[in-house]
Every structure is written in C-alpha cells, then in structure tokens.
# Entry
Amino acid sequence: MPGAMQSSLASLHDVELCSYAAAGERRAFGELVRRHGSGIRHLLRRMGAQAAEADDVAQDAFLAAFERITEFRGEGTFAGWVKRIAARQYLRRLQREKRLSAFAAERGEDEADPSVGDAGDRIDLDEGLKALSPAERLCVSMCYGAGLSHGEAADALNLPLGTVKSHVKRGLEKLRARLAPGEGVVLEGRRGNG
Amino acid sequence: MAEVDFERRLERLFADAPDYPDAQGFADRIEGRLNRGWTARRWLIGAAGLAGGIIGASQLVMSNLFQRAEAAEQSAKVLTQGLSHVTSTSDMVAAISGGYGLWIAVGLAVVAMGFAVSRVIEEI
# Structure
C-alpha cells in the first residue's frame, strides 16, 4: 500500500473506515485491524486461549466481521462489536473441540491464593485472571471484556444463567481481592439478569 | 456503589490491551486473506458469467433460432428490395439485415447475457 494512502486512512475515524470497508475497500478494513487487532487477540488470551489459538480465532473473527460489516450500525464501538464476534467464535471452537463442557463442568476451586499479589503497586489484570478457574475466567472475560450480558454469556456457553452468575461472582471476588484488596464488598455483578 | 466502580474499573482494564509488536504483520495477513478471497470470488464470478453465456448461446442454437432468423432474413431481403424502390436509405437496412449483422447481434446477445449473469451473481 502506498504510504500516502495508508496515512490518509490512519487519519479516519473507525466509523468512516467501516463505511469504506462496507463498500469493499479492503485497505480500510486493514487499518481497522491494525488499530484493534492487538485488543482482540489479548481479549482471547485473557479468555484462556493460547497465543497461536488466539491469533487464529482473531483472524477468523476479523474475516467474519468483514463479511458482516454492513450489519455494524455504529451503535457501539467497532472494537466492541468484533470482540463479541471473537468471543463467540472462541466458544464455538471450544465446543467443536469438546473443550467447552470441561470448562463448564469445572467448579472453580480456589487453586490460587487471591491475597497473593502486589495489586497496591500495579493493577495487573492479566495476573489477576490467572488466579481464576477457567470457567470464571471465561465468564468474567466475556461479560467485562467482550461486553456480553450474563444472559448472552449463558446462551453462548449453553449454561444456566445462575451458573454463569456464580462464575462471574466468584471471579469478581477473586479479582477484587487481587486488584483492590482494601475493598471487601461482596460482588454480584451489576449486569443482573440481562 | 463500590462494586459498580470496581466493575467499571474492570471494564477499563479489559479495554486496556498492550500493542503487540507484530500488529502490522497480523493486519497484513488478514488483508492478504481478504485480497485472496476477493480474487477467487472474481474468478468465480467470471467463470459463472462465461458458463452462463455458453449456456445461453447453446440454448439459442438448440431452439432453431438460426433457421427462423434465416427465414426472417429472407423476408427482410424481399422487404429491402421492395423498399429500395422507395428510398435510397434502404441500403443501410439491407446491410444490417444481412448475414453478418445477424451474427453480430447474436454475439452481442451472448456477451450481454454473460454480463447480466455476472452482475446477478455479484449482487447475490
């Protein structure tokens, strides 16, 4: 791509790039990937995917987003929209490989001591997520990273709503203990029944 | 209120992801895949258009169109001869209704049919 073209695309807003991409302009979509690719890949790693797997799923998610770009109405952010696609694709992959049931069946043992860590010095979400069980990690990442409601997460995971809420609640408690140890409030998750 | 604050903080933390050093390469790979897909699609559309044109042409041949056209051509010649007595511009009518004119029209029809099929597939 010529440098001038790339720099002109770099100055455009996401919504403008989306409208160009909807018209079939693949370089505009490439600019969107450049902007948000790392965020999507990192979310998938936070959900529990290995690096290579996260990259594969992120690629598939972006390709799916390009195919469905006309469905993006600009009601939320482009990154948020792709994150939801990516989260669902990751779940589908887990289901396909029969790994999701193992995640869901997992009951969230306290395998790590949540009091350990230096949250007072530096907020480190990635480290905090490692203290969560796979199911808690998945549910918390879907709800707070991909922006799904508890109900949407339950549908995507094919789990009862109550189970998802329990995973989220336990996950938030552990994260809070690591990231904000001074605040001892019991967390239910404000996403409620949604 | 504290839990709401914590959840908002958590969302901000989730939104805050590091820039990967290979972000450009990752984007280039996706752009490459999109371009390959686009090229393949264009080939597919072109092939479908060509196939549509061939099918259209074969349908024309199979429907005895040419025999009918030749009969019409004979009629046109008779008509042209009649007209030549009336006006000199009938030379042009005769040229168009001659054998070459007919074949050019058929060829154009096939090309137009192929183009139309291509457009329809592309729209779908």
Q: What stands out?
A: Chain A has two domains: 10-97, 107-189. Chain A touches chain B at residues 24, 26-27, 29-31, 33-34, 37-39, 41-43, 46, 55, 58-59, 62-63, 66, 123, 125, 140-141, 144-145, 147, 172, 175-176, 179-180, 183, 185-190 (CB under 8 Å). The two ends of chain A are 44 Å apart (CA to CA).
